Amino acid sequence: MAEAHQAVAFQFTVTPDGIDLQLSREVLKHIYLSGVTSWKKRAIRFKNGVLTGVYPASPSSWLIVVIAIMSTMYARIDPSRGMIDRIKTSLPVSIITPAFSCWKQFCCLIYLMNKRLKRTYLESVRPLLDDEQYKQMETVANDFKKDPAPKFQKHLKLKSWWATNYVSDWWEEYIYLRGRDPIMVNSNFYTMDLLYVIPTHRQAARAGNVVHAMLQYRRKLERGELTPLRALGIVPMCSFQYERMFNTTRIPGIETDFVQHLKDRKHLVVYHRGRFFKVWLYYGGRHLWPSELELQFQRILDDKSEPQPGELKLPSLTAGNRVPWARARLKYFTEGINQASLEAIETAAFFLTLDDEAHGYDPENIRSLDLYAKSLLHGKCYDRWFDKSFTLIVYKNGKIGVNTEHSWADSPIIGHMWEYVLATDCFQLGYTAEGHCKGDINKSLATPTRLQWDIPKCQEIIESSYMIAKGIANDVDFHGCLFNEFGKGLIKKCRTSPDAFIQLALQLAHYRDKGEFCLTYESSMTRMFREGRTETVRSCTCESTAFVRAMEDESTTVRNEQRLALFKKAADKHQNMYRLAMTGAGIDRHLFCLYIVSKVMGIDSPFLKQVLSEPWRLSTSQTPQQQLNLIDIQKFPKYVGAGGGFGPVADDGYGVSYIIVGENLITFHISSKFSSPETDSFRFGQNIRQAMLDIRALFNLKEKM
């Protein structure tokens, strides 16, 4: 998971002459470009709205509607038979949907955040600093508030009036696309298959059903047939991120990458045992049926040809540093067969790996989830195309998973598609008794086409990228922890937010693991606003540290009733902070944007420099569950997802992703680095388990009393 502190790597240069005027122009240039991009998106959405708003009719059919309306007006006939008048009396004077008003809400929130920014930030770091350090930070923050904060704020206000969203374009550019380090492990994240079930052990058949389900989802997405999600079942959430799910690739550049998104693509590229194959997804104007896709994938599995020189590890270019990959792309992939083959990959609907390994959860093997996670996160470092919006991985035992490039969207977006795919695969498409896809087989389909390469001169760069990626992958210490002693059901009986319960358990576990508190990141979505992505919940608070200290105080002066009271106070604090972050009143994205303005203007800010360089030694995220409610997990308890995860953020820290599955299961995905003597993912998992049980014991004690 990429973090805001990566922005400190970017430097901006200015000349000392005419500094105020020149720097203001530079900031205005950035704001202008953001606005132009926003208005282009609006124009495209308007056009798509016109085309899809009358589906399945055509825009030309409007002529008939207009003629009919004019005729009824001339004849003074009400075709609605009074319905329109009744609706007019029932509706309020004006209705403004969140999709159109969210940019205005962002403007209001900027003013709100400006008033509470300093206080909230200082409050968040207080438990991590001693009195002298806190006094120094307070002085720096006060100096920043006086000058140059007002100057930076004016530019953000201007941007909020001009652009659709004052954060998201800069977040995408500076946190993701300008990063020059490898995106494998450091940025990309993974999503697992169903935890307990493998609907078929035939690799080609599973791939056939899943790919077909993805094509169905893409068609619904393009036609606007997917129902928007609603926060708390009321407020529609922005669907902008879904637009780039398919037909999208991150293209490497020397200074910055860019996201290439195309219209409907009719092929995908498959990687198997070091060979690349192009597979057409349409036949006679329709999607290939699952049985036809199974046939095509089986043909690839049966192909015994060897990789061409350099072809085996070619994808490792996407796993290494970005600048060598960008230079290699310009030098070796801009003409001839290399250009044609690379274009086939980058313009594909998505990328598919038919993996020659078997993975999945095995109750007999305590490390099975660990190996499964590492395979999805980085594989062999050369068998996933990490630049594609997502790579679908299908293992030889029928298990599946996804590796997702992070710049275009966040995990709930890919999770939405994944829920649809798993439900469609298991409950709509299904398999025969022998495990094959259902339906007839059309053997007249053209066989998949091998992509051709001429890359002997590029092999040194490929090998260099592979060695860098391998070093990163070998350092990832992963542990998957299934916590099934209790779950959401019992936590709700305690009248506590499940997320707050888990976050406080993580604070307790981390303190027991390292003997200290740390700056903690929890990701919260801001999709109630147009083009909103995420905000940070700073989970380590004065209230949570007081609770943890009370839990670790073994003296008789601290009673469990006091611990429980401190827990409830800390949980309420966390829940309130989550609400603030979700509704745009967090502080970290605002601080990030102020920092970008400061760098563009060339004004050094000790306060912002310190804030944006603070390491997140505990980075956490909850994976959403049942966004679509397509599977009744009460009726089918084995058909639950295993969630997903991401790589470690800090060299000496932990990354923790968790998914609350049904009423009685919570799955934790824990990452750290072997190279750090301070961390151990398995040990941390055990600490989390014990912390959860110890907190539950507080409630059990009170119930007995």
Largest sheet: 8 strands, mixed
Q: Helical proportion?
A: 40-55%
Arithmetic mean of pLDDT: 87
Radius of gyration computed on alpha carbons:
27 Å
Q: Tally the helices: what do you get?
A: 21
Number of DSSP strands?
20
Please indicate the percent range of residues in DSSP E strands (runs of 2 or more).
5-15%
Instruction: Calculate the terminal CA-CA distance, rounded to whole Å.
Output: 44 Å
List the uncertain runs: 2-23, 51-58, 86-113, 701-705
- For the biggest β-sheet, the strand order reads 13-7-6-10-11-12-1-18
What is the global morphology?
globular
How would you classify the helix and strand content by structural class?
alpha+beta
EC number: 2.3.1.21
Active site: 406
Domain Choline/carnitine acyltransferase: 120-690
Pathway: Lipid metabolism; fatty acid beta-oxidation
Describe this structure in words.
The protein has 21 helices and 20 strands. By secondary structure, the protein is an alpha+beta fold. An 8-stranded mixed β-sheet has the order 13-7-6-10-11-12-1-18, sandwiched between helices. Strands 14-20-19-17-15-16 form a 6-stranded mixed β-sheet. α1 packs parallel to α6, α17 runs antiparallel to α18 and α19 crosses α20. It is globular and about 80 Å long. The two termini are 44 Å apart. The N terminus and C terminus are likely disordered.
Which terms would index this structure?
disordered N terminus; eight-stranded mixed beta sheet; 21 helices; acyltransferase; alpha+beta; six-stranded mixed beta sheet; 13% strand; transferase; 705 residues
